[in-house]
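Anyone have tokens for DUF1211 domain-containing protein? Sequence:
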Amino acid sequence: MENDRLAAFSDGVIAVIITIMVLELKAPQGTGFSALLGAAPTFVSYILSFVYVAIYWNNHHHFFQLVPRVTGGILWANLHLLFWLSLVPFSTAWLGEHHAAALPTALYGVSLLMAAIAWYILQSTIIRSQGQNSALSKAVGRDIKGKISPILYTAGIILAFFSTTGADGIYAAVAILWLIPDRRVEREIDRR
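Reply: yep, here.
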């Protein structure tokens, strides 16, 4: 199968995920600055989640430029990733409403951790299907960011029960880590 259908379906699901997240943003009850300030935690959690979903979409887009053929295993691994990403709006909404509470902060971390694990499974499935000498395998290399992210998410989940601010800081730090452009995939695309 060509990768166009998988990419189009994934783009649609990710668009719906972002739409659901933005629909969860409610206008403040009052008209003053204090009402707007009260909505800040919800807005900040939305921004962080939007950044995460955008990072996944961007990396997905780049990865599938290096995947000439999609197998059944890749389809299922992709659906597994989309499942975990589809739970981000729920964990984002709960975190936004209860930003100082341990369990919503930890659950937010769990949703990020599971998406990271699903990404790793998708990446591994593609490389296994395409071979160790494939363009994607060369581009990914040792994948330091991919290996350190689940460790940091796990630390954030545990820390959530002691310091929600510390856990949120870890989640934001991982997002910043992934915002720093990784040119390996783009170099492989240019070589092709």
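Residues 3-191 form one domain.
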